[in-house]
Amino acid sequence: MDLQTMTYLVVGASFALYIGIAFWARASTTGEFYVAGKGIHPVSNGMATAADWMSAASFISMAGLIAFNGYGASVFLMGWTGGYVLLAMLLAPYLRKFGKFTVPEFIGDRYYSRTARIVAVICLILASVTYVIGQMKGIGVAFSRFLETDYDTGLFIGMGIVFIYAVMGGMKGITYTQIAQYCVLIFAYTVPAIFISMNITGVPLPQLGLGANMADGSMTMLDKLDLVVTDLGFKEYTTQVLGSQLNMFAYTLSLMIGTAGLPHVIIRFFTVPKVRDARASAGWALVFIAILYTTAPAVGAMARLNLMETIQTGPVGEVTANLAYEDRPQWFKNWETTGLLQFEDKNGDGRIQYYNDKNEEFAERAAAYGWQGNEMVKVDRDIMVLANPEIANLPNWVIALVVAGGLAAALSTAAGLLLAIASSISHDLLKGVFAPNISEKNELMAGRIAMAGAIALAGYFGLHPPDFAAGTVAIAFGLAASSIFPALMMGIFNKRANRAGAIWGMISGIGVTMLYVFQHKGIMFIPGTEFLGSMEPNWFLGISPNAFGAVGAIVNFAVAITVSKLTAPPPEHIQHLVEDIRVPSGAGAATGH
């Protein structure tokens, strides 16, 4: 069976499964729409959380980042998994004990302020909309290649699928759909990784294959990769860093606390029956996430090796060893049609030169070979996971499975984000502020209308993505880290934090982060709006815009604590509320013994 037919069958079957689950688990009450009736088992919730969490950035983009940035891309592995530890230990059980539907609702009640709740809604929407753009980029990339549609059409198809099962089922439908999506995406990620690890090293487990010898026994796989990339003027794969060590630290910290502050993840812990189930859910989610996250470094490294050896064959000094363009493999031709892989024959020799023409030392050697610049003028890193099975000549069913997995990852996270946006509008703004007496039926209808509007908005922004998927997602984490995480932490662990402190802290944190992102990347989706330039020398202490959320969080904490000390303390009942949140259920008073 040809690849396109196989892909249509596999992807179509997965979509039918998701829609069928949505009909079976459709929400009939606001409790089911927002928090699935608080009846999800911890293991099931852990699996759904893993699918909610492992987005297009994790499935499609993270291994691509690792492929091109080597060790430096480990910030994503450390930051995203470390954030779950913070979430499990410091936030999830306490927020579940509080027992409300949404993060802004907690902030509004804890800081006894409608204004604080509205500010939290704005921060939530900014972070979630930015995050969902990355999912739309992943959907567009997958559809544009394997279903032979253009990027825009792919987005509209993805939006339609999410609309059906998210609007109909709410959190209840999304939860059970995400369980199915986790099974699809983890199977789709690990199966080709096992095949490729066997081909390159003879070791079936990719986690072990990463450090194993090549199948011919000549050297380790990582040593071989280091040799290949340095021979072509690129940095050594195993020692690359993302900017300075300070930037690496800030990037990791931003992703970590951004994870712990993401509303679409936190809201999942409101869906379990008991407080202790929230902590158990986080533990199970870590187990399910670890399966993919321990596989990703091997996928990235092996994808880079396969790519380099396919395009630039033989020793660098032998110009004739370069791949002739007319002999390029079928996978190369397939991805060229998407515009995500582009070649330009700069010296007219009909062969492909793929090297680092920014390396001045190697550029001299390249000039002696007659090379006139890197002729692979575009290699979109988001294609690496999807292209890897084709590059490795794996069977069509494996390639189709990877497509279904990538779409499952993007759709599952998009659904969770859109629900977080919709609930913040219908529950926090409409019922919580503007129409407190609205009926449950009308609130449910408002939630569905808000969801439809959020899908349309996400689709519009997805047509104009500002960055690759994981880069866009990193900015979303920075926004969550600089605004929501500090407000939650102080709300749980600092009785003295008050209304004014929380409001000004959130505004200051997200404000300074957005200002920094805008000045280096432009106002999102509006080209030419970089008003201080985008060159690295302008970076504050060498910290990249994607990592600046950590600085924004420090600003948030500092402003909130300072303002709280200079203004009246919270009312007595709020301070008792904070103490009650932290005391385990059934615990008696301290006796002093």
Characterization of the model:
The protein has 593 residues and is mainly alpha-helical. It folds into two domains: 3-303 and 392-468, Sodium/glucose cotransporter (Up-down Bundle), CATH 1.20.1730; 308-389, no CATH class. The protein has helices at 3-24, 30-35, 42-53, 56-69, 74-98, 103-110, 114-146, 151-201, 206-209, 221-231, 245-260, 263-266, 275-293, 296-311, 330-336, 360-369, 384-391, 396-434, 440-462, 469-493, 499-521, 549-566, 572-582, and strands at 341-343, 376-379. Strands 1-2 form a two-stranded antiparallel sheet. Helix 10 packs across helix 14 (296-311). The protein is globular, with a radius of gyration of 25 Å. The protein starts with a helix and ends in an 11-residue tail after the last helix.
